[in-house]
Amino acid sequence: MFASVPWWMYGVGFLLLLGPLVTVHELGHYLVGRWFGVKADVFSIGFGKELAGFTDRRGTRWKLSALPLGGYVQFAGDMNPASQPTAEWLALPEALRAQTFQAKPLWQRALIVAAGPATNVIIALVIFAGFALAFGRPMTPPVIEVFTADSVAHAAGLEVGDRIVAIDGEAIADFEDVSAYVLPFPGRVIEITYKRDGREGMAPVRIATHQMVDRFGNKAEIGLIGVGSNARRFEPVGLIGASAFAVKSSTELVELTITGLRQILTGERSVKELGGPVKMAKFSGEKLALGPLNFIEFVAFVSINLAFINLLPIPALDGGHLAFYAAEAVRRKPLGPRSQEWAFRTGIAFVLALMLFVTINDVASLFGS
């Protein structure tokens, strides 16, 4: 571990984070496409000018490009954003046309598109399951052992030894589960059901707002109720238990992401909390400085988020393609080429505008704005 983050570690961390995640995402598209007999013309890591590459015996150009902010697989025949047949495609010999993306039935095209985000989910599941197999599943009984000096839970009547059994009617099995109902919701009032001496009670608690600053100076507004436990242990698990832990951890990350986006859209949180490539490079360098286990855990977090973002129904993202395929399945025919073309142009404009906004946001945050 490093006491401070060397400048070069931000770049190394960013490349070690995004490079493999983009590669496995695109490999998901590529392998499922190959499985269904679709020829790939290009497999690119990065966008823009080619820096290095080679062409394999199947005619696929594998290349590394200058802008390391993503990647793509260009399948044969998929030459326009709407994946609509062109005059050139119609003029192809039947044998070649059968190897193109557009020639495949709807369900196969949908699986090819969904394979990228699905691969990112699998990577996160493997990482979380690997942690559980190597170190055990973390278990902490939801029993209050300590209060902070300004604990709002203590002020509401909770005592040391109370067992938290539910929050807002949702059962609590582990102390870590409390965080999901508290950290993202500063200022909210929650109903805590607790058990004391065999009897249940209920206490309304207003979550305190806390400005958290980590060792690297990153700030975040979180909720706290001022309770703690020192009884954390790691329980050995087999493959099934590790898999269950991986699914639970991944689901909680998705729920946390959805909660954060909803709060930003409704004004509960500042848009300054949105991050882009600059902030991702910063965090990846910091996690790498903390050691390999912290960095690998961060990889799982980002992998889940990449899958989630890619599945949003925004034209130009995988979720946009899947939305069009869903409409095609319902209508029994695709949307018109012109409407799809305009939708994809709008989607690309939105994504580029968002990237510009979050990059400006990132740079401003570096200077404390």
Q: What's the arrangement of secondary structure elements?
A:
Layout: H1 7-35, E1 40-55, E2 61-75, H2 87-90, H3 94-97, H4 106-135, E3 137-139, E4 146-147, H5 152-155, E5 163-167, E6 170-171, H6 175-182, E7 189-196, E8 199-206, E9 208-213, E10 219-224, E11 227-228, E12 233-235, H7 239-266, H8 277-290, H9 292-310, H10 318-331, H11 337-366
Antiparallel strand pairs: 1-2, 3-12, 4-11, 5-6, 5-7, 7-8, 9-10
Helix pairs in contact: 1-4, 1-8, 4-7, 4-9, 4-10, 7-9, 8-9
What does this structure look like?
- By secondary structure, this protein is an alpha+beta fold.
- It contains eleven helices and twelve strands.
- The chain has helices at residues 7-35, 87-90, 94-97, 106-135, 152-155, 175-182, 239-266, 277-290, 292-310, 318-331, 337-366; strands at 40-55, 61-75, 137-139, 146-147, 163-167, 170-171, 189-196, 199-206, 208-213, 219-224, 227-228, 233-235.
- Strands 6-5-7-8 form a four-stranded antiparallel sheet, covered by helices on one side.
- β1 and β2 form a beta hairpin.
- α7 (239-266) packs across α9.
- The relative contact order is 0.13.
Summarize the structure.
The chain has 369 residues and is of the alpha+beta class. It is 50% helix and 21% strand.
| Beta-strand share of residues | 15-25%
- Rg over alpha carbons: 24 Å
- Overall pLDDT: 85
Order of helices and strands: HEEHHHEEHEEHEEEEEEHHHHH
Could you give the order of strands across the largest sheet? 6-5-7-8
How many individual β-strands? 12
| End-to-end distance | 29 Å
Provide the low-confidence segments as ranges: none
Helix fraction, binned, reads: 40-55%
What is the SS-derived class? alpha+beta
The biggest beta sheet reads: 4 strands, antiparallel
Form type: elongated
How many H/I helical runs?
11
